[in-house]
Design a protein that fits this description.
heterodimer, A: D-Maltodextrin-Binding Protein, domain 2, 5-stranded mixed β-sheet, 17 helices, B: alpha/beta, Rossmann fold, Alpha-Beta Plaits, 2 domains, 6-stranded mixed β-sheet, 4-stranded antiparallel β-sheet, 9 helices
């Protein structure tokens, strides 16, 4: 059997048998289920309170707020003075009090008294109190239908058109970003796992000098190819398992979080680019891991050093909030072209906007070029420093090695 | 055809000359003892032979050609510091590493069983590496080195950590390899093992060859003009002696330049001294090593 295949088989089996791999593979779906469970539990805990009938006493210093006192879940009870209202509150006849001052029209401010501890007035309650006040203020001058229309939150429907004026196949709503962001997160995790596994394996083999036995049997290229492909396959298997579990999780999440599943869209070409960026991202991170594995003496040293590019690879996830709010900023173009952030950033961008062809070509081209040059240099570095134990070479020595290799 | 031929090999790291103009060869059916103090350049020389690193100058020929990837299947290498995958069993380790040498599983398993039996490890073949003692792990790694029936075997300190019984088993396998026409490079600090096993010795110090040749001839080169005698009788008045050195149970007589050992023996016989042992002093490899390596020895 081909030696690369033998190395691949051995490394793949060892990788998927590692407790860290098994735990991480199971952890992501389990974590998602736990989050959904917690959200469900939380909403069921706070839900009934919001649905309970509440009696709100009020003191009207203007004298016009006398209608629409039955607002469904809240019943407004008038009091002639604050003292009477407070007495009723202390006797638990009402749950809280609002005072509508005489200068309300100019201040648009009312005072609310409650016995419960709250950070902020709940949104539902704020809306009902607002509705009660507005309806009373407009009741003599505006028709009930118009009042209903004013109080109904605006629905702003977006329809994206293509350049010929037809409705675009790819509508840029929030449903479009769910799959890309999920994929970007899983890709980042898989890249980190693959890189760490490679460094751990090389570190262990260097520490035990097993690497010398291996190199007396196979070439540097054969060994690195076998390892990189095996860990790539292990990473791909991991992502596939996560994706396979996602329909169940999304279904559960959809039922708990209000049926958002129907809005989910997969951007066009997403799967093709997903595969391309997975493969290229894996090769790039493997190349970096091989370089670090070649330089350091122990796996622990390697993990410390690898944080530099692993953290950089997470930049698109850290800046996700800013990206959602300002998707057209040129910084995302830069991150799509920078090789370490290109896989995750480009996949995220696919979810919110069309990426010009030149940017896609440049992003993939730069990534391929970086991998080709980096692979060449990393093998040189690895070959030079693989048998150097106990000390990490200085940057100057690495450059000298590259020059003379 | 030499299995290994090294000519004028040199290698330096920064300002340190690790290997300096090294030349030697290993023939089929030969065991070459590679000795020298720590930092002498032994490991660097081995790594250049195996093509792990390139020399600054000089050349290495393996099987009469520059090193090629395909030759790796014909070479067995046991590094000085050892370690194997901890979670694999002895047999899994042997089979995996034998497969990387191009061996099919069935043949590898058959040979592994024979070798495990020879070193008394057959009952441990399903034991994981992490459950084995250092010596047991070492035996497994030795088997990995020779299981694919290599034509060239390079062993770096193969006996360290082994008990006398297992040392003898390993020695027997090394002798068998020589008898089968294989070439062995044995790097060790155990001089007695070099004397017992090796046909030739190459001693290097600070990267340079300080001694190279057959063991008896090499020892003869360092023969002193002295004799060592053991006797229970008293003697005196022997002529032609410069100095008498008392050793443990014997004495060494340093002779005047014109006096021969035979003349000393005749004088002792004339005095009627009963002699238990009489030999022309030939230093052991260890003594030669200490003399040549000076204070740099381990």
């Amino acid at each position: 059997m081909n030696k690369v295949l033998l190395l691949f088989k051995h490394e793949f089996i060892q990788a998927i048998k590692k407790p860290g791999y098994i735990i991480l593979t199971l952890l992501i779906p389990v974590l998602a289920l736990v989050v959904i469970g917690v959200v469900h539990l939380f909403s069921s805990m706070i839900g009934p309170a919001e649905n309970e009938l509440s009696r709100v006493g009020y003191v009207d210093e203007i004298g016009i707020f006398n209608a629409f006192t039955d607002q469904g879940l809240i019943q407004f009870v008038p009091f002639i003075s604050e003292e009477v209202a407070f007495a009723a509150l202390l006797d638990s006849e009402i749950d809280e009090i609002i005072i509508i001052p005489s200068d309300f029209y100019t201040t648009i401010s009312i005072q609310r008294y409650t016995m419960t501890r709250e950070l902020e007035t709940p949104v539902g309650k704020r809306s009902i109190i607002g509705s009660f006040l507005t309806r009373n203020m407009l009741k003599d001058d505006v028709s009930p239908d118009l009042i209903d229309a004013v109080l109904t939150p605006l629905k702003l429907n977006i329809t994206r058109l293509d350049e010929d004026g037809s409705v675009s196949d790819s509508q840029g709503n929030i449903g479009n970003i769910i799959i890309p962001s999920l994929y970007a997160f899983l890709l980042s995790m898989a890249l980190m796992f693959g890189s760490n596994s490679l460094i751990s394996g090389l570190g262990e083999e260097k520490e035990s000098r097993l690497i010398e036995v291996l190199f007396s049997s196979v070439s540097v290229n054969q060994m690195l190819t076998g390892k990189v492909l095996a860990l790539g396959a292990a990473g791909l298997l991991q992502v596939l398992l996560w994706l396979a579990s996602s329909p169940l999780i999304l279904n559960l999440a959809s039922s708990v979080l209000g049926g958002f599943l129907m809005f989910i869209q997969i951007p066009s070409n997403f799967i093709v680019f997903g595969v391309i960026y997975f493969v290229l991202g894996y090769l790039l991170f493997s190349m970096l891991a091989v370089t670090i594995g070649g330089i350091v003496s122990t796996a622990a040293d390697g993990h410390n050093l690898s944080m530099l590019y692993i953290m950089a690879g997470y930049i698109p996830l850290w800046t996700f909030g800013a990206f959602i709010n300002f998707p057209e900023s040129p910084i995302w173009v830069v991150l799509s072209l920078f090789p370490i952030t290109a896989p995750t950033q480009t996949m995220l961008r696919l979810g919110v906007s069309d990426i010009p062809a030149w940017q896609m070509v440049s992003s993939i081209g730069i990534l391929v070029l970086s991998i080709a040059i980096g692979q060449y240099l990393s093998v040189k570095i690895f070959r030079t420093f693989m048998l150097m134990y106990g000390k990490r070479p200085k940057v100057k020595e690495i450059f000298r090695a590259l020059k003379t290799a | 055809m030499a299995v290994v031929e090294v000519r004028n090999l040199s290698k330096s790291y920064a300002d340190v000359l690790a290997v300096d103009d090294l030349t030697f060869s290993v023939e089929p059916g030969e065991i070459l003892g590679l000795i020298g103090p720590n930092g002498a350049g032994k490991s660097s020389a081995i790594k250049m032979i195996l093509d792990f690193m390139k020399p600054d100058s000089g050349m290495v020929m393996i099987f009469d050609q520059p090193m090629q990837e395909t030759f790796k299947d014909r070479i067995g290498y046991l590094p000085e510091e050892r370690g194997l995958y901890k979670k694999l069993t002895a047999m899994q380790l042997i089979l995996y590493l034998a497969s990387l040498k191009g061996m099919d599983k069935k043949t590898a398993e058959e040979r592994a069983n024979v070798l495990l039996e020879r070193v008394g490890m057959l009952e441990n073949k399903d034991k994981k590496n992490k459950e084995m003692s250092k010596g047991m792990g070492q035996l497994i790694q030795f088997i990995i080195t020779v299981v694919h029936d290599p034509d060239l075997v390079i062993l770096d300190e193969p006996f360290s950590g082994l008990d006398p019984v297992r040392t003898e088993s390993v020695q027997a396998i090394i002798r068998d390899l020589r008898d089968q026409g294989k070439s062995v490079i044995l790097s060790t600090h155990q001089m007695n093992k070099v004397e017992e096993l090796c046909d030739n010795v190459l001693m290097i110090n600070r990267g340079k060859t300080v001694l190279y040749g057959g063991i008896p001839a090499s020892r003869a080169k360092f023969r002193k003009h002295s004799v060592r005698i053991e006797t229970d009788d008293n003697w005196s008045g022997i002529e032609g002696i410069i100095e008498i050195k008392k050793l443990n149970g014997s004495v060494e007589l340093i002779l005047e330049p014109e006096i021969t050992p035979e003349q000393i023996l005749d004088q002792l016989r004339t005095q009627g001294v009963r002699i238990n042992r009489f030999e022309v002093t030939t230093p052991s490899l260890n003594e030669i090593f200490l003399e040549l390596a000076g204070r740099n020895h381990e």
